[in-house]
Amino acid sequence: MGGLVYYSSASGNTLRLIDRLGLPATRLPREADAPLPQVTSPFVLICPTYADGYGRGAVPKQVIRFLNDPAPRALLRGVIASGNRNFGDKFALAGRIIADKCGVPLLYRFELAGTEEETARIRDGLARFWAQQEDKTCLTQA
User: Fold this and answer.
1) Per-residue pLDDT tens for 84-109?
2) In angstroms, how far is CA 12 from the centroid of its own chain?
3) Cβ-contact 21, 29 below 8 angstroms
4) What is the number of other CB atoms lying within 10 angstroms of the CB of residue 85?
5) What is the recorded function of this protein according to its Swiss-Prot or TrEMBL entry (predicted)?
6) Cα–Cα distance, 96 to 90 (Å, whole number)
7) What domains can you pick out in the chain, each with its CATH number?
8) Residue 87 has what DSSP assignment?
9) Per-residue pLDDT at 138
């Protein structure tokens, strides 16, 4: 199975989901000037959404900085995004933006820290996703 990279703000919602998933994950720092982690294998990004009523500022600046580096961006395989359903069509907007800009699938959207059911669905979905990625790799190497 591939890895997870995530960003979690002071609210800790994304971190709570990551803890419940129980999968290895690399955290992007909250501090804007902190060194970014070195990622060397394919990963799925889990990212919260922060936007005003018009969708501006949806993707956290640290995530933008991380994905602006071609090396980790080349390893990005999918996005899972969180948000607040109170924002209507802006719900989990960061995931749609990242998926579109990076040409990867938006795998799942969840609200705030996610429910136990969503956590199980994400864990199972990631296992299926990485198995499909492995199948693609085997086919291209044959």
Assistant:
1) 887 778 888 999 999 999 999 999 99
2) 15
3) no
4) 11
5) Probably involved in ribonucleotide reductase function.
6) 10
7) 3-141 (3.40.50.360)
8) G
9) 47
